[in-house]
Design brief:
The protein is α/β, with parallel strands linked by helices. Helices cover 42% and strands 15% of the residues.
């Protein structure tokens, strides 16, 4: 395979012809100094997926695995690159032996000698001969801890796209839950108050065999109750495989334990491939993720400027009040009025107002509702309504504005879908979460974790409304706490973000 990206790009797929200059530059730099760990911080519009695919061909990778955090990005790889084989979990396939159950609840989960005509097995055959696979973080991490897939079929190049969420997925992979409420419902005797992982592990060991027998007996007949027994069986297995040092975060009817830092899964991830490429619009300044994965200083780091003209997506810092848990009604009223003024001025544009909680969304909405011209344009996530339905209403609206606590990443509001964004309240990690609180106090990784993760989320939010070279979207930051965050942690913000700030 030729090393020249210009010769490789036409082979990637019908949407690709020649690399952009910035793509060619980063590919040649990566190739000339490829390390075990490589990080590319690049905003929307660079074409990171094509960089990943092209790099695999440049280094003659016999097997490349790409991990994504969202189904939409996994679908994009599958759609844009014909060479990609899509790999998803067993629960996405129907079992043809036990009608009504998925392949993840089927008898073959407990007895590998059994099989059926499920398309899951077709996926597995395609996987065995694939040279490039696109999968998701939960599946990759689960196999690292509980499976053999990546040990028997080791990636030469592992691409972690949307890698700013890596800590989240590694943590989830090591976390364990045992739902004693479910066990009670299934007729099992449960402990009155299990507060230690050791005690929960003993219960799982004592009951696992009978749970598996019951799960198998029901699944072989296609009984829908098998679903609950298989779920409980998986929970028991996860508890019995749990790494040491987990922090108990919930007791009672549902027991939960999480790692302070997911060192076990990070170590296994580091060893699972010859080369690892992390990509995202923001990567915590690089050093944090390298330390998390145990790479110290032995990695390559690239941060790229935006390919978009700066005037198309300015970020205006207009502090109104420094918001925190102690902020009162007057401060929220002031921020609400400022958000409303921006919305009212942009009477024909669509916009997004970002907050950190549903309660904050309600506070902003109450101020806007006082304006008869803007009241009917505001869309919010009401209790009992699905998030997807709220987003769908906003997307089809004319001149609508949405106030929402969880659309700062993973969503795309292209072109007229959003012309203005307002960050009314920065989203910090929740110190009410015991693990977050312990991490923030930790003198090692914790010194960077709390503020770097806030910087990363803020930078991700900026990119929701700027998606292509002809797009434009202005963003206003009203939360005065941003000034202190930025002054003390400037290195945590990507270069492209710093260039946009006004």
């Amino acid at each position: 395979m030729p090393l020249n990206p210009h010769l490789i790009f036409p082979t990637l797929g019908p949407r690709y012809d020649v690399p952009r200059p910035v793509q060619e530059q980063i590919l040649l730099e990566l190739y000339s100094d490829l390390r075990r760990l490589n990080m590319v911080e690049a905003p929307t519009g660079i074409g990171k997926s094509a960089i990943a695919m092209c790099l695999g061909k440049m280094i003659n990778s016999p097997f490349t695995v790409i991990c994504t955090a969202t189904i939409s990005l996994q679908d994009q790889y599958d759609r844009d690159f014909p060479e990609c084989v899509r790999l998803v979990g067993r629960n996405n396939f129907d079992c043809t032996r036990a009608i009504g159950l998925t392949a993840g609840e089927a008898p073959c989960v407990m007895d590998a000698s059994l099989s059926c005509r499920s398309s899951y097995y077709e996926q597995e055959r395609d996987f065995e001969t694939a040279t490039t696979v696109v999968t998701n973080y939960p599946l990759y991490c689960s196999e690292l801890l509980h499976g053999q897939r990546w040990y028997s079929h080791r990636p030469h190049l592992l691409v972690l796209d949307e890698a700013h969420r890596l800590l989240e997925f590694l943590t989830a992979a090591e976390s364990v839950t045992l739902d004693f409420q479910l066990a009670d419902r299934l007729g099992l005797r449960t402990p009155a108050n299990a507060t230690r992982l050791r005690d929960v592990g003993q219960w799982a060991m004592d009951n696992r065999e009978s749970i598996q027998q019951r799960a198998f007996g029901l699944s072989i007949t296609g009984n829908p109750k098998a679903r609950e027994w298989v779920s409980l069986l998986r929970q028991c297995d996860a508890v019995l495989d749990a790494p040491e040092g987990l922090v108990v975060t919930k007791t009672g009817k549902v027991f939960e334990a999480q790692p302070l830092w997911p060192t076990t899964s990070a170590k296994k991830l580091r060893r699972s491939a010859n080369h690892i490429l992390l990509m995202s619009a923001t990567l915590f300044g690089g050093e944090f993720l390298a330390d998390l994965l145990g790479f110290d200083r032995y990695y390559s780091w690239f941060t790229l400027p935006s390919p978009f003209e700066s005037w198309r997506w300015p970020v205006y810092y207009r502090p109104v009040a420094s918001l925190n848990k102690k902020s009162g009604a007057a401060e929220w009223e002031a921020v609400g009025r400022a958000a409303h003024d921006i919305m009212h001025t942009h009477s024909s544009d669509k916009g997004v107002i970002h907050v950190a909680s549903g309660q904050q969304a309600d506070r902003i909405a109450r101020v806007i509702d006082a304006c008869p011209d803007c009241r009917g344009r505001l869309i919010r996530n009401r209790r009992g309504r699905k998030r997807a339905d709220t987003l769908a209403e906003f997307r089809v609206s004319s001149g609508g504005w949405i106030v929402h606590p969880s659309i700062g990443e993973g969503e795309s509001f292209d072109d007229d879908g959003c012309r203005v964004q307002v960050i009314a309240k920065l989203r910090y990690p929740d110190l009410g979460d015991p693990v977050v609180k312990l991490r923030a106090k930790d003198r090692g990784l914790g010194e960077r974790y709390y503020f770097h993760s806030t910087a990363a989320y803020t930078a991700q939010t900026i990119g929701r409304g700027m998606r292509n070279e002809r797009d434009y979207c202005e963003t206003y930051i009203l939360d005065g706490s941003f000034g202190n965050l930025y002054d003390r942690n400037k290195e945590a913000f990507p270069e492209w973000f710093r260039n946009q700030l006004r």
